[in-house]
Every structure is written in C-alpha cells, then in structure tokens.
Amino acid sequence: MKLTADLIASSPSYINAIRDRELDLSSSNIAVIENLGATRDLNDSLNLCHNSIRILGNFPTLDRLKCLYLADNRIAAIERDLAQFVPRLQTLVLTNNDLGDLVDLEPLKELEELEILSLVNNPVTSKKHARLWCVWRLASLKVLDFERVKQGERAEAKRLFETKDGELTDLAKSILDVKSSAPSTNTFEPGEGLDQAVAEKTAEEIQKEQSISELKAKIRSEMAQVEAMEQYI
C-alpha cells in the first residue's frame, strides 16, 4: 500500500503516554516512506512499525519530530542526509530490521540529539564491537538496545577506535572502508523497493502467524519500554 495523504488523514493521531502528539501508521503494508509533508509537521512521534519499508529516508523537513518507531520492517539502508530532514530526532527504534554493516549506521552520527536507539534483531548487532562502535560514533546516545550507555563503555570505545592524537585507529578505518548501501538524497528513488515488496505481499498474507491485534500489542509493549526509559533521561 502507498503512503498517501488520504492514509495519513485517516490514521489515528493522539497524545501518547509521554504526552507527545503521535501519528500511528503501523500495520499499513507501507513499502516506501513518502508524502509525509501531508502531516504538516504536527507530530512529535511517528509510528511506522510492522510495515515493509526497506529504506529509512525520503522525509520532508520535520523539525518537530522527536520519536520514530520503525520496528518490524525490512530496513537495510539509511539515507545519508537523513539528519537534514529530522534534525531533532531523539528516539529511533529499528528493532527487527535488516541493517547489516556498521558503516550503514553512519548517517545516524549527524543526528545530534539522538539519545535512544534500538538495533535489536538486526544483523549488524552480530558484528564484532558493534555496541562499542555505536557508543563511540553516536556521541549523544544515552540508551542503546534498551540498555543505558555506561561511562566505562565510552572510555573503552574511545580506546578501540581513536588514537591518542585523535586519529582513527586501523580498526575504525577497516569498519569505515566497507561499502555502505545507504542512498544519498540525490540518488534515492521514491518507488525503490516497491515492486519486490508488492510481489512478496501475498506470501506474507498466507503465512501470517499473528493477528493484527497481537502485532500491535507487541509494538505497544516495545514502545512502552522506550517511553519508560525516556522518563529517566
């Protein structure tokens, strides 16, 4: 399904548990992020969980947006210029997606206010030093994968990836040398990934293991964890 202005207008919008205005676009079979200009930047939180999104990008400028929930999608790439369009983003939940390499996370380092990030059940978390890399590269992080970032982790990460002269270590250089799959603003195509997502839709429907209500309950549970952490930050 396309993310249209009509879908946006008909989707629930409410004040959530942390008193933010939230737009709920979850479980809508969305394959591509588009047309979010129709939100008129009126939301603090945007719920796009349990869709078929493959690329985190193609946002209009959303200066108000603070929380972005994208659990249970197929995100494998992040637009390089993401921070230009969501500059105040503080919480990003990417649980159960397909991000594969540490270098794919590079666009997130430009999000200067990012405090909470979940990469649980992404292939990237199995990479050696993945947590320490995120702690070092994303300096504003306070909570990573639902665990508070400790001062000792920051010190260990700096030792691994930064020399005494402030240069990159060989380990850091080797991580950054991996070719990223992240598209830039100039190369991103709004319809990218749509045909394959549509082709897989029937198979997904046949293999449904949970009802929509069960899926939303799971998403709400995860969001509640994030919201509970935000109260202590």
Question: What can you tell me about this protein's structure?
Answer:
Mean pLDDT is 86; it is low at 186-213. Helix content is 29%, strand content 12%. The chain has helices at residues 5-10, 82-85, 130-137, 151-161, 170-176, 194-206, 212-230, and strands at 13-15, 21-24, 45-47, 55-56, 67-69, 77-78, 91-93, 116-118, 143-144, 147-148. A hairpin with a 2-residue loop joins β9 (143-144) and β10 (147-148). The strands form two sheets. Strands 1-2-3-5-7-8-9-10 form an eight-stranded mixed beta sheet, with helices on both faces. A two-stranded parallel ribbon has the order 4-6. α3 crosses α4. It has 233 residues and is an alpha/beta fold. The chain starts with a helix and ends with a helix.
List keywords for this structure.
10 strands; two-stranded parallel ribbon; 12% strand; 233 residues; 29% helix; alpha/beta; eight-stranded mixed sheet
Principal-axes shape call: globular
Poorly predicted regions are 186-213
End-to-end Cα distance: 37 Å
Provide the helix percentage. 25-40%
Strand-residue proportion: 5-15%
Number of helices: 7
Could you give a short account of the major beta sheet?
8 strands, mixed
Give me the count of strands. 10
Mean pLDDT: 86
Succession of helices and strands: HEEEEEEHEEHEEHHHH
What is the C-alpha radius of gyration, as a whole number of Å? 18 Å
Given the helix and strand composition, which structural class is it?
alpha/beta
Largest sheet strand order:
1-2-3-5-7-8-9-10
